Amino acid sequence: MPFWVPAAGVSFVCAPQPCLAAAHGPVGPLDLTRHWAGYLAVVIFFLAYFLAMAEEVTELRKSKPMVFAASVIWGLIAAVYVGGGMPEQAGEAFRASLLTYAELLLFILVSMTYLNAMEDLDVFEALRCWLLGRGYSYRQLFWLTGILAFMISSVCNNLTTALLMGAVVIALGKDCPRFVTLSCINIVVAANAGGSFSPFGDITTLLIWQKGKVPFVDFFHLLIPSIVNFALPAACMFLFLPRHHPAAVDKRIPIKTGGRPIIVLFLMTIVTAVCFENFLNLPPAAGMMAGLTYLKFYSFYLQKRTATRSPSADEVIPPDEPIGDTEEFDIFKKVSRLEWDTLLFFYGIMLSIGGLSFIGYLERISQFLYADPERTTFANILVGIASAFIDNGTIMLAVLTMDPQISQGQWLLVTLTAGVGGSLLAIGSAAGVGLLGQAKGYYSFGAHLKWVPVILLGYFASIGTHFLINRSYF
């Protein structure tokens, strides 16, 4: 019987699948892994993925090939099912994937809208000036933003953490592109590592906790391996940062009117999303949309306040009054400035993976990995590497579906590897994909790819640390 579970922005149907040719009417999803439609779907996916990775060279936006691939893959699946007299099953599976994409889309929409609003009200500019006023060098700022990303992501999802800290480093490094590039890579690694030791930090930890594979307290045994995963690549990148300090800022830039309340509303929105998920069993997107109404009601208040304070024709506005006090605050303008190419890229990736999962490829991969108990460690390491190419939630759900009989230490290992493996590529995690859109011109797939060796070093070092300090669990 097929099932659907939301997993880190990707949902898919996965089940023991019958043969394609079912003479007396199929009773479940078809196994298309050895069908021409399955082979063609894989070719189309990897071709589109390659084009997305080569965006800098081809200048073809990454969303175009991935959305096309998703459309063709599901078109192939639907054609086979319609031909087999099962038109409803493909449509239901597609709607399941589409529903989870809609949840992620709404989540990102709210996060980016808040960040755009805070940017317009000089929140990040004020933070930049405050940090620069403290006399920190680029190297110190690199560590500071990375540590903050690591800590925040343990209680907040890696995407929101990356977007928040990305906005800060872009504001800090306007005159030093190399600092912004390395800091963005550092933030991606830190955000993924920080979410790997907390049950609430990442979808992989949440799935394993909900399945009862790892008790709540035991997740925190991954804290030190996660720190190693973040700190080792950061230490290597640190050596290539400029030694000088950012340009000094003589004056303090005030946050415009409404900036501080919006920060509070954003924190309330995150709390609302967490409460909706943990206590009401509703998707986080529902809480985020509730949080968007906080901003909408507050923007209505600001608009009314601006209207009542509009100066007359002969009135002179004081030169030191923040311009935000007299400008119209329109929430829909913030929404219109979202990075839609990134959001559509998410659609292509998620729906493509959902299609390949429905075909049956992830189930076969899971069976191959865990067929031999002696290869469990190797399999769990491969799971982490695979999460750089396929969403880690999808990978983890496939592992949980197989339900391999492995030790507590191995469950902790696959939790760690699936959580941090997405750092290997820029498009291996939601944090990386989000920064690709936000920090365009500074952070790119190619820039991240150059540092894969040191990130891979941190990956294996964290695995070794886990075996060293948690050997009693094996």
Automatic annotation (TrEMBL):
Give the primary localization class. Answer: membrane
InterPro entries from the xrefs? Cit_transptr-like_dom, NhaD-like
Q: Where is the signal peptide?
A: 1-21
Q: Name one Pfam family in it.
A: CitMHS
Keywords in alphabetical order: Antiport, Ion transport, Membrane, Signal, Sodium, Sodium transport, Transmembrane, Transmembrane helix, Transport
Segments traversing the membrane: 37-54, 66-86, 98-117, 141-172, 219-241, 262-279, 285-302, 343-361, 381-400, 412-439, 451-469
Describe the family membership recorded for this protein in Swiss-Prot or TrEMBL. Belongs to the NhaD Na(+)/H(+) (TC 2.A.62) antiporter family.
What protein name is recorded for this chain? Sodium:proton antiporter NhaD
